[in-house]
Design brief:
Length: about 100
Amino acid sequence: MNLRTIKKDIEFFIEEFLDDCALFISLNPTKNEEEINKIIDEAVDLYNELKNKVNHPEGSSRAYYNGIRKELFDRLDALSEKLSETITKLTAEEK
């Protein structure tokens, strides 16, 4: 694994998550998008935090970068679950 690859992974996966959020907002313009915007803010914070960690490493070991990759996926999974719960709640309110 090289540094360029992990930077691209961070960008790609968070961008895909943000696209999912934007898609929900655009398909459901009548929903209260404030909660979705909070999740988007969390994803942007995650992006900035991980890019900062990659750009200012505490070591150049493979384990350090593997830890960043694991953190990316763990925290994105948590955000995805939060997004799913929020969407379920917002769509249930409509019924």
